[in-house]
Amino acid sequence: MVDHRKLGRELGIFHSDPLSGAGLPIWLPDGAAARHAVEEYIRELERRAGYQHVYSPPLGRRDLFELSGHLGHFVDDMFPPLRMGDDELILRPALCPHHCLVYAARGRSYRDLPLRIAEIGGMYRSERSGVLGGLTRVRAISLNDSHNFCALEQVGAEVADVLRLTSEAHAALGVRPAGYRLSLRGPGGSYVGDDESWRRGEQLLREALSGLPYEEAPGDAAFYGPKIDIQVRDAAGRESTLSTVQIDFDKPERFDLSYADRDGGRRRPVLVHRSLVGSMERLFAYLIEVHEGAFPFWFAPVQVEVLPIGADQLPAAEAFARSAVEAGLRVRVESDGSLGARIRDSAKRKVPYAAVIGAREAADGLVALRSRDGRALDPLPVAVALRRFTEAVASRSPALLS
Ligand SMILES: [Zn+2]
Question: What is the pTM of this model?
Answer without folding.
Answer: 0.95
